[in-house]
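Help! Submission page says 'invalid entity' but I think these are all valid:
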Amino acid sequence: MIPIRLRIDPPGGPPVERECREGSLTFGRGADADVSISDHSMSRQHARIVADAGAWMVEDLGARNGTFVNGLRIDGRRPLAAGDVVKMGATLVHVSDAGTERGGAALGFGDLTSSIFRRVADITDDIDAPGGAPSRVAARLKAINDFHRAMAGPISLDALLELLLERLFAALHPEEGVILLRQPDGTLAPAASRRLPGASGELLVSRRLISEVVDKSTAALVSDLAIDERFAGSDSIIGSGIRSILAAPITDATGCVGMVAIYSRAHVRRFGEEDMELLVSLASAAALRIRNVALAEEAAERRVQDHELALAHEIQMAMLPREFPQRAEVEMGAALIPARAVGGDLYDFLLIDDTLWFIVADAAGKGVSAALFMAVTRTLFRAVAGSERTVSSVVTRMNTELARDNERQFFVTAFIGCLALRSGALAYASAGHPPPLWASGQGRPRALDTVDAGVALGILEDAEYHEGRLTLEAGDVLLLYTDGVTEAINGRGELFSDARLEQSFAATAGRPVRESVASIVDAVNGFAAGQPQEDDITVLALRYRGLQAPPM
Amino acid sequence: MKIEQSNRDGVTVIAPFGRIDTSTSGAVDEVVKQAVDAGARDLVVDFAGVEYISSAGLRVFLVLAKRMRDLKGRLVLCGLPEPVRQVFRLAGFMPLFRVEPSLDAAVASFAVQP
């Protein structure tokens, strides 16, 4: 038997040489061909070269695109000689004598069980044979390879999870896959899922599976759900029609952050142990990255929110009056310190001719919902105070408007006053608001009589509000506040209280009201001593100076 | 926060403990909502263990009262410590609720009142 040399020249790949002395060698695209070539124009079993009765023959194995020798299509077998060129698909095989000029080891066909002449990219692209063992190995390699490569670059969390599922589908051929991630509240929720077109039914997230995988931090391979003891009696998963499951925990240094699971309804024993290893490997590769990406996305989201809140804070602060009325009869000062970026407290005033309307209000809760309700309240105050004649009718109108369609029962407590600047006559009404303090003459400050106080605004559409009246003397000071002042809390859990407020107020008697306000705020801050501020704090002071001589 | 729930003579009793403020009112809201969703129509909220209630806390009970009215259920508050009573009174909310001094009185009130 004269040995021959074959130079195999596949499309797009480097040529390979083989020397043959006996036996038979099959060529084809299939992984089970002796010479497996990534050439899509080849058939799986395309042709073979065989030693027969002392001669080398080439035999077409029924290839769809035929086998050619020196340009002629062969039918069945044909002898081969040195110098022949065999064409199988796009692959050329050059035949020559195994002469002395090319030494080296000559291989018998018997030694060549499976030679794979493929570029790596071709191997990993060719995964059209889910049953074939070598192609599954290749698909696994490709999955790991692609996944690591993709993760080397910038990638969003969603894209990362999609990529994980995509690679798993390509390598392991499930019909459905789902990734659960732990949420800030500790629960696990689906973060990504994928299913083959045509897959039907609910996407399954079984508690039993979660407890097997996440709680025990172990990978699960279920070959046939119907006979797996771990799931006996778990009706939801049995009833789902799922037969095979492969699942792995997503675990990083902080513990288990999620789970990835793939299912097959159509096949038992769809997945094997090697598949489980692949899944575990990809899941752990993803874990650290998931955490980093999630942290980065959270941080970015927080930056956006912080920015929005900073804007909201500016908008809300801009709603507060920047200047007090320039009237000789009154002297005013105020401070508002929200507990968060935005808050539900409000003060405002409206000067109409010789009448000064003023309001201090506190919308329930804090944060954005309270801030919105506060903004509505301010708008209403401005609209209504200008058109109604009495304090009680202003408060009643505001309440009716706020109570309309108020399903969520937001409410706002408010104290509204109306001071006739020329006479000092004050009319006021309280809607569930703490009574202001009134300092008159040399006496101690006392709470304004609000026994007739009505319900906070927004709750009872037909509520009635009564007004109180008194006449301020020159030098009298009114101190309006919200309960964030008296309910400020210190490290021992004590409240700032009405008593301390009264004390702080009395201590600044006779000083400009702006100083009173500042010193009360200081007293509250000093009392709380770094304890987190629980509620918005508002203080407004108004001194009536009496009818001053008109300017010259 | 600790919130106890029990049943006395067919009356659902919910007893929160500690401070009911912005950070805890959600938990209280959840418990009362679930009780009503589960069919409770005779409901007592026992405030004996409540140290403080903020405006956010008040809202929980305003929403509850409104819902009980809509469902033709009955709601009674009881055991209000003075600081808590003060907050309800100041906001003008006392007239919106049936209030009894003690849990026993609250449960008993369902037998005699319609």
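Support: the input was valid. A stray whitespace character was the problem, and the output above is from the cleaned input. Residues 2-104 of chain B form a domain with the Transcription Regulator spoIIAA fold (CATH 3.30.750.24).
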